[in-house]
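User: I'm writing a short methods note and want a consistent example. For Phosphate/phosphite/phosphonate ABC transporter substrate-binding protein, I'll paste the sequence; you return only the structure tokens, no commentary, since I'll be parsing the reply automatically.
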Amino acid sequence: MSIKLLTGLMLSSSLLMGATAAIANDCSHRGVLDDKFCDEDYDLVADLPKDSNEWRDPSTLVFTYTPVEDPAVYKDAFSDFQKYLSDVTGKRVVYYTVHSNAAEVEALRSGRLHIAGFSTGPTGYAVNLGGLVPIAVKGTEESFQGYNLITVVRNDSKITKMTDLKGKVVAHTSASSNSGNLAPRSLFPALGITPDQDYEVKYSGKHDQSVMGVLSGDYDAAPVASDVFKRMVDAERIDKEDFRIIYTSPRFPTSSFGYAHDLNPELVAKIKEAFFTFRFPAEMQKTFGGADRFFPVTYKEDWQVIRDIAHSSGTAYTKTGLKQLAEADAAKAAKAAAKRAKEAASNSQ
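Assistant:
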């Protein structure tokens, strides 16, 4: 290696280390946030960058909603809000369809996503790793919309209480899901049943797939979000009488809505105005269980119970945790594709 090249490499390395140190020294507190973020006001979410040159003001805003069920359903459900958001901000708003929680977090982290709704559990990943600033939950004038973890079995099942799940096959949804995985692991042991130890856990991928799997007999039971179960009943995808609920948890906040931490403050003010002045049209109220507006929340206060559940279950909202989530999502997608291929081959015979 030439002296000139070696000197250049050493200089580049020195500059990189200096820049990294400068970034680290420029932040007096970041808590559990990723190294690229700062939290000097101790509100548990990423601060706006100190350098105004880093503030983003895109001409097109990209919006999405958590892939808890069929993503196409929610693209239509939020069409009125997207138009209103466009009118208030004066910017074009497009819907970006995501098919996994990990993909949604990565889209936010990479800057491809500006405004989003994240399901309850993955909100922690979005905050710590993606720089999400949650501001709202679907709700009414009185309060935000909540949901419960419910455990469902078939109505003709001999399972009548939680301890009857011992030795059974139980569908959890995904590793990051609050009601579909984290809350069961945190709450069930006190009920005398420990996931993976007392029953076999199989990941279904989504709440509706867990419910349908119980109905078809693929699983003996499933912990799912009560709001998803209700929407399936209301949409007549399932008959409530075909199921029995053997457990109902305390109430949790439902999906959070927020914006990327580095958006221009003037744009953020318009985004907040759009969220808090928009009123859901009748069809949107029907889709979201009677919610008629976005109710203001904070991550620090309103997500405390969710963070406690994650902590007690050993879940860390870190890069390693997100990588594991992405791997689990990929495995589920491959399994689902194989199942569809098998069914297609069977139907063609």
